[in-house]
């Protein structure tokens, strides 16, 4: 095989190779003006030659994974009893091999996968993990593909992968090179046909489940990490889709000598036949670890012949399943028998020898894969990470019905409702209550409606979690991008709401006051939005965060100072009033409207008295025909409103919620 790879130089380049598929990128797309014809392994070779390091900082040499006497034990806090979720496991997976961890539900598949991937608490882990025969840190050479598809539904397959590529490849890669890499992985995972189709949302029918899973995998293996861990990559897929997903993974492992470990629940016969190795677990114990094609013979030596025409995977799982044994001791013995048999088997002896040989072979040679630094290096600066995320969030918001358009429509509809309900309330004292109500409901309803942003936020958060886990960017750029993107969006909402409400109600008829109304609505929504992000980051479960945000907004509505006026709020709840963002929003809007307005008192027709007017507010002598907006504020107890200070408080509250949102994500990251 011939590889010529030098497209990073300024000279025109030719890439000659013996594969059938090449990807042609338009000349104009290459910043050097050169045509690029690449396939994924060509890029891989180039990276190797140019000391490419993956996003995790690892070199591109193949890496074997071995583990010996690996246990993971948890202690029951009540009984103080220790339980081994993984017990004395050993195994080897070599470059180009795919190993499936199989076992019934609760067997410890995910736990073993997580322990191998370095995602579990190291204090609870004992045993050794070797990379190329030397103890090493797996996370620097691996990627972990989560079970959930973390993609943006309104973006196409290509766009999702492209944004991941923009984030995980250094800026030294030209746009055309990144595009070539994206196209290569699309081809590699058999996604060409649907590359420009949207992933799909509740509103838009998108690609199939299997295609979505492959797209999700593509976003996570772009850098060709040397070891790939996949948590149930076929869960929720039918047999054909599962086979296609696994086939694509196996193909990649073979082509690029990647070491792949996947937990699999119940593979079909076809999918099962794709694996090179099997690790069968039962109650955390190893019941078989070795070559897939030797498993049938091994179980035969134990007296368990796989019936003709049956799926070996099904048969093994059926054999070892003790879940429905009512006697716990009997169930335990059942598993112990299998694990003891394996421990004393020739297969295990060969496995131990293989691990020993691997360690011996690399004793004198090879370098230890371990990070020299505890701090992670990202491919882009903080600012660049933020800008890429802003671009993606913008595209997502513009296309996402739920994030943008539905919310705009809802806010405008709410504006119309308030505008028509309080239509031209005028300047008579009888309508003061309605005037205040229209302002209170503007604040309260719009704040409440911020819950509509939860689904979109949770989708983005899932993508963030995956990308953060893969070291694409840090928490700061995500929070900052989320904040930046919300600003124009909230201004548009505030502006369109004001456009349909302000004049319809007949609020303070002055351009300056109308603009200030938009600003105050914006400040209010800005806090509401930040609070939503904070709550949804603490509880990233749709129904739960919806309920808690609704409760929080209901709570703030009570203490905003309209349903109960400030002087009448009981002492015990005063604190709530002072930390209530709706109070500051409502009061600034109220002040902005009432200050400088005059209202008409009721004219009395009683000629026998010198009282000509009945005024609810202001001068009650009966001689004044009007009262001022300030009179209303004073008499209702809205004293000491300081718009400038309230504005600062609202900005500070938004910043505090955003910082809390940042802290939650940081803590969760550290925790995981
Ligand atoms: N932190 C923990 N503390 C106590 N028990 C735990 C903990 N984590 C997992 N377990 C238990 O360990 C066992 C193995 O869990 P694990 O998720 O690894 O199983 P699994 O084989 O992946 O199951 P499934 O196929 O259902 O996902 C289960 O019985 C689970 O309840």
Structure description:
It is found in: Membrane. Belongs to the ABC transporter superfamily. ABCG family. Eye pigment precursor importer (TC 3.A.1.204) subfamily. It is a multi-pass membrane protein. There is one protein chain. The protein is of the alpha/beta class and 672 residues long. It folds into two domains: 65-364, 3-Layer(aba) Sandwich (Rossmann fold), CATH 3.40.50.300; 382-584 and 654-671, no CATH class. Helices cover 50% and strands 12% of the residues. The chain has 22 helices and 16 strands. A six-stranded mixed sheet has the order 8-9-10-5-11-12, with helices on both faces. It has a four-stranded antiparallel sheet with strand order 4-3-6-7. The protein has a two-stranded antiparallel ribbon with strand order 1-2. The longest helix is centred in the last third of the chain and has 31 residues, at 475-505. The two termini are 43 Å apart. It binds adenosine-5'-triphosphate. Adenosine-5'-triphosphate (ATP) is lined by residues 74, 85, 103, 105-111, 265.
Spell out the key features of this protein:
six-stranded mixed sheet; four-stranded antiparallel sheet; elongated; alpha/beta; ABC_transporter-like_ATP-bd; 672 residues; Rossmann fold
Short description:
InterPro entries: AAA+_ATPase, ABC2_TM, ABC_transporter-like_ATP-bd, ABC_transporter-like_CS, ABCG_dom, P-loop_NTPase, Plant_ABCG. The protein is an alpha/beta fold. The protein folds into 2 domains: 65-364, Rossmann fold (3-Layer(aba) Sandwich); 382-584 and 654-671, no CATH class.
């Amino acid at each position: 095989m011939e590889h010529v790879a030098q497209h990073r130089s300024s000279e025109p380049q030719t890439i000659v190779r013996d594969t059938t598929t090449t990807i042609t990128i338009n000349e104009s797309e290459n910043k050097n003006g050169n045509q690029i014809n690449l396939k994924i392994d060509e890029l891989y070779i180039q990276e190797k030659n140019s000391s490419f390091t993956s996003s995790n900082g690892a070199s591109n040499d193949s890496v074997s994974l071995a583990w010996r006497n690996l246990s993971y034990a948890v202690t029951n806090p009540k009984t103080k009893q220790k339980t081994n979720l993984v017990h004395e496991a050993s195994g080897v997976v070599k470059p180009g091999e795919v190993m499936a961890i199989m076992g019934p539900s609760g067997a410890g598949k995910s736990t073993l996968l997580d322990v191998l991937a370095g995602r579990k608490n190291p204090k609870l882990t004992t045993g050794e993990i070797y990379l190329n025969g030397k103890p090493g840190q797996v996370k620097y050479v691996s990627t972990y593909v989560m079970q959930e598809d973390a993609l943006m539904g309104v973006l196409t397959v290509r766009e999702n992968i492209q944004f991941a590529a923009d984030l995980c490849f250094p800026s030294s890669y030209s746009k055309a090179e990144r595009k070539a890499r994206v196209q290569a992985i699309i081809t590699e995972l058999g996604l060409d046909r649907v590359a420009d189709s949207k992933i799909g949302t509740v509103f838009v029918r998108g690609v199939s489940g299997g295609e979505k899973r492959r797209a999700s995998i593509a976003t996570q293996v772009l850098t060709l990490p040397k070891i790939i861990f996949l948590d149930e990559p076929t869960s929720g897929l039918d047999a054909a889709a599962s086979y296609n997903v696994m086939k694509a993974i196996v193909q990649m492992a073979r082509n690029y000598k990647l070491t792949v470990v996947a937990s699999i629940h119940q593979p079909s016969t076809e999918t099962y036949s794709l694996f090179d190795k099997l690790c069968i677990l039962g109650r955390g114990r190893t019941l078989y670890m070795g070559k897939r094609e030797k498993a049938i013979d091994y179980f035969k030596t134990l007296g368990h012949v796989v019936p003709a025409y049956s799926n070996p995977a099904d048969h093994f799982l059926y054999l070892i399943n003790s879940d429905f044994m009512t006697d716990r001791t009997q169930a335990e013995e059942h598993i112990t028998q299998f694990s003891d048999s394996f421990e004393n088997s020739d297969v295990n002896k060969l496995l131990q020898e293989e691990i020993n040989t691997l360690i011996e072979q690399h004793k004198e040679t090879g370098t230890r894969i371990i990070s020299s630094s505890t701090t992670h290096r990202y491919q882009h600066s903080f600012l660049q990470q933020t800008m890429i995320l802003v671009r993606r969030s913008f595209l997502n918001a513009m296309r996402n019905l739920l994030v943008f358009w539905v919310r705009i429509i809802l806010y405008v509809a709410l504006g119309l409702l308030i505008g028509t309900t309080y239509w031209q309330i005028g300047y008579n004292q009888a309508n003061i209550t309605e005037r205040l109500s229209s302002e209170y409901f503007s604040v309260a309803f719009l704040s409440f409606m911020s819950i509509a942003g939860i689904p979109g936020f949770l989708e983005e958060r899932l993508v963030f979690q995956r990308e953060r886990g893969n070291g694409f960017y840090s928490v700061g750029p995500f929070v900052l991008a989320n904040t930046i993107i919300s600003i124009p969006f909230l201004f548009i909402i505030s502006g369109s709401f004001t456009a349909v409400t302000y004049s319809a109600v007949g609020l303070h008829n002055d351009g300056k006051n109308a603009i200030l109304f938009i600003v105050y609505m914006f400040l209010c929504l800005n806090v509401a939005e930040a609070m939503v992000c904070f709550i949804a980051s603490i509880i990233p479960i749709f129904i739960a965060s919806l309920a808690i945000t609704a409760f929080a907004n209901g709570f703030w509505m009570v203490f905003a100072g309209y349903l109960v006026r400030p002087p009448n709020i009981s002492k015990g709840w005063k604190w709530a009033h002072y930390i209530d963002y709706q109070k500051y929003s409502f009061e600034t809007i109220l002040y902005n409207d009432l200050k400088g307005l005059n209202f008409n008192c009721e004219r009395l027709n009683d000629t026998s008295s010198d009282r000509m007017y009945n005024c609810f507010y202001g001068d009650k002598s009966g001689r004044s025909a009007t009262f001022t907006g300030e009179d209303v504020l004073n008499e209702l107890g809205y004293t000491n409103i300081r718009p400038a200070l309230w504005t600062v408080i609202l900005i500070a509250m938004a910043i505090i919620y955003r910082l809390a949102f940042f802290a939650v994500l940081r803590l969760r990251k550290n925790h995981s």
